[in-house]
Amino acid sequence: MNIKELNPESSPQAAFGARLRSLRVTRGWRQDELGERMGYSSTHVSGVETGRKVPTLPFARSADRALGTGDVFEREWREMRNGSLLEGFPEFVVYEGRAAEIRLYEVGVVPGLLQTPEYATVLAESDVRRGAITPEQAAERVALVADRQSSLVRRLAPLVFVVLDESCLVRPIGGSAVMDAQLARLIEFAELPNTVLQVAPFDMGERRPFNLPVTVLTQPDRALMSYAESAQRGYLERESAAVVPILTAYHQLQAEALSQAASVAMISTLRKGTP
Question: What is d(CA 64, CA 71) in angstroms, rounded to the nearest whole number?
């Protein structure tokens, strides 16, 4: 039998496949035997083992059940999924999903919580073309955007305050159709009962307290957290005392920004300018 050699260090996907093969062989099972126990074809198992097929979360969980490995494969899958994300961001997403209040300020692009699938896809595909991530990682990024947005409509929905720098509205992403749908999505967001949307116009000039994006989370126990990113990593600040000055600056930003009514009017005017 021609068995493809695997290099577990070549990628997380290869490491997943190598582990799967090793545990299967240790038990003396053929690929069709493991596939039968997992509910997958031998071809599917072979594809994952050799790195030709990307494992999914259901596949990882089935492997754990069939091989009795607890959550080893599920944890490995989650590490793969988050491999294209900045260090610190996956942890932030967990706290974001629990937050009672979310305050965010963004520059240049519409933030993930407000993106349409089409807008998110254009950004992810751009990273693929630059070679920064794989097509599979791009798909995971788009799926993560949808997962994060589900927190806005959970039973105990958070209060969400958003201030967008005007650059988020005028920077063209994906062409006029994508931008028109995205601007329409912003207006819909502003109409939700648990949201406030404001625009920080260019003419705020030096009165703008932030030069980079920032997010402040208020947890159900009123603990404060802030999240910011550099080019290399994200940083989650968990000490409430350190977050208070950021929260104060955010309130100053809101006071200087356009009202929600004026912000929605600006967005509506921009929409009229898209073909």
Answer: 6
Give the pLDDT confidence of 201-243 residue by residue, as tens digits: 999 999 999 989 999 999 999 999 999 987 667 788 989 999 9
Nearest Cα to Cα of residue 270 among 144, 133, 172 = 172
13/50 Cα distance (integer angstroms) = 9
CB distance 214 to 259 below 8 Å: no
Cα distances (Å, whole numbers) of residue 73 to 14, 19, 60, 70, 110: 13, 9, 5, 8, 34
Domain residue spans of the chain: 12-82, 86-114+145-272
Q: Is the pLDDT of residue 2 over 50?
A: no
Nearest to 20 by CA among 52, 56, 45: 45
Which residues on neighbouring strands pair with residue 218, listed in sequence order?
101, 224
Distance between CA atoms of residues 128 and 122, nearest Å: 10
Q: Where are the beta strands (DSSP E) in the chain?
A: 101-106, 159-165, 195-200, 214-218, 224-229, 234-237
CA-to-CA separations, 261 to 13, 158, 167, 265, in angstroms, rounded: 48, 21, 19, 6
Name the 3-class secondary structure at 102. Answer: strand
Could you give the CA distance from residue 171 to residue 126 in angstroms, rounded to a whole number? 15
pTM for the whole structure: 0.70
- Does domain 86-114+145-272 match CATH 3.30.70.380? no
CB 95 within 8 A of CB 219: yes
Name the residue with tokens 């990307």. 54
Domain 12-82, second-level architecture: Orthogonal Bundle (1.10)
